[in-house]
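Re: that backbone. Tokens:
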């Protein structure tokens, strides 16, 4: 009976997991399918002979989609690179180094995580304007090269690494920075992957910040540009759905290849004092 019960439990578990996956996948397939249809067929089932790439051809012909893709890729990769370089350094310093004001810095870090991002947009805009960076990609890259939430995550991760590993490295002659580069970073792949995933998805899909700092059509990132398409063609659902799929597809592919690191990274970032 116990064996039968465990089998039934596994079957039910897989069933509900499959059902949950289906619930999340249906909207993706709906968007992908309808993006291939003319407007009059949206929401209906039609044979593959009706499917076409005309919606995508129209988008690429009438709007600078490739330029928006390029701007999005530059800003996203820059933010990801900045966070995987600078954020672990800051987190490691808060976890391992002893210096005056360390607790004050950590308290300020925690407090900054409680401030909604919308509240700092105006000060950021003023700073970017004074630096002459408004309406440039730098305005949406520089303020986000390192972020408090990920510094906190890195600090918690490094607290979980035994200090004996670093002490052994220093006995062998490595300095603090050498220990960080040659010992700590190689075993921090889960942390770095998690930071990269969060920053990639957050920056790629960001709308408020780019729409605030950038006003030139050719400098738009993809999500802002596609919102412009939607505003101009709000009654053409076929173009809107094609744009949604263009925006979502890279994120889906990225997450498919990195989702295992995401789960591991969250599990290793518990709060430690």
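Recovered sequence:
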């Amino acid at each position: 009976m116990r064996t039968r019960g465990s089998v039934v439990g596994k079957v039910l578990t897989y069933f509900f997991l499959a059902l949950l996956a289906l619930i999340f996948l249906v909207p993706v397939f709906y968007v992908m399918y309808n993006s291939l249809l003319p407007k009059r067929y949206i929401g209906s089932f039609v044979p593959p002979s009706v499917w076409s790439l005309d919606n995508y051809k129209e988008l690429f012909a009438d709007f600078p989609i490739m330029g928006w893709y390029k701007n999005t890729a530059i800003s996203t990769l820059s933010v990801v690179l900045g966070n995987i370089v600078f954020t672990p350094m800051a987190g490691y310093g808060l976890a391992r180094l002893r210096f005056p004001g360390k607790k004050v810095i950590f308290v300020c870090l925690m407090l900054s995580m409680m401030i909604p991002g919308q509240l700092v947009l105006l000060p950021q805009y003023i700073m970017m304007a004074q630096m002459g960076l408004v309406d440039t990609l730098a305005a949406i890259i520089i303020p986000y090269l390192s972020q408090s939430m990920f510094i906190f995550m890195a600090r918690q991760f490094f607290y979980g690494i035994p200090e004996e590993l670093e002490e052994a490295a220093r006995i062998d002659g490595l300095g603090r920075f050498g220990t960080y580069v040659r010992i700590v970073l190689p075993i921090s792949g889960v942390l770095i992957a998690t930071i990269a995933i969060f920053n990639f998805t957050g920056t790629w899909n960001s709308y408020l910040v780019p729409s605030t700092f950038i006003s030139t059509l050719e400098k738009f990132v993809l999500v802002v540009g596609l919102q412009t398409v939607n505003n101009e063609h709000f009654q053409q659902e076929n173009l809107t759905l094609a744009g949604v799929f263009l925006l979502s597809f890279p994120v889906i592919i990225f997450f498919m290849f990195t989702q295992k690191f995401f789960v591991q990274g969250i599990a290793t970032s518990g709060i430690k004092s």
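Confidence is low (pLDDT under 50) at residues 269-273. The radius of gyration is 23 Å.
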